[in-house]
Hints:
Elements: H1 4-11, H2 14-34, E1 40-44, H3 54-68, E2 72-75, H4 81-91, E3 96-101, E4 115-119, H5 122-132, E5 133-138, H6 143-157, E6 166-169, H7 171-186, E7 199-202, H8 205-215
Parallel strand pairs: 1-2, 1-5, 2-3, 3-4, 5-6, 6-7
Helix pairs in contact: 2-5, 3-4, 3-8
Amino acid sequence: MSTAKQYVIDSLSTQESWRLFRIMSEIVDGIENLNDIPASVSIFGSARTPSDHPMYQEAEEIARLLCEAGFGVITGGGPGIMEAGNKGAQEAGGTSIGLCIHLPMEQGSNPFIDVKCNFKYFFVRKLMFIKYAMAYVVMPGGFGTLDELSEAFVLRQTNKIKPFPIILYKSTFWNGLLDWTREQMVSAGYIGEDELDAMVVLDTPEEVVQYIMSHSPNL
Length: 219
């Protein structure tokens, strides 16, 4: 009689085995490309933010100030806030890093990247964001941005990474989410109020850089 274990073994096709090698290759390529970058900060936010939007310009300013303080800047390499981060970093003479993902509807990478890595798998890309960042700056965005925020928060919450700063940029955008978290999750006992201390809400580019300088575990 067949067992569950046999079913699992039978399901490992040659194609799936080769996929493991492609995943390993992405990890190796990412590490080789990023090992020599300076201490860096990952900036996240919406790919749909136009270049004339104030949030684009503030992301650009954050990146510029970070690079003037000696940091590199890591983004997802795409348009919107990602482009702003890379542009601000490159124009400030800093190291501008783009971790690009292959997506069917993605517009491609932005032109302001000095160090570029291409990924097919989201989880490998997320690994590189975490491994090479000493802080996260989370600008306004959609579910992709929330996904990156949640990933970093859970890894900090479970002590799987160093307690680096997770900065939510712009209180007018994030305070509603934090209020809901307290009203629903904290009040129900799903999360402790003190665990929210892993995140801080800031409102100016200067505050962001000052906070990272004083709270990053690697400085």
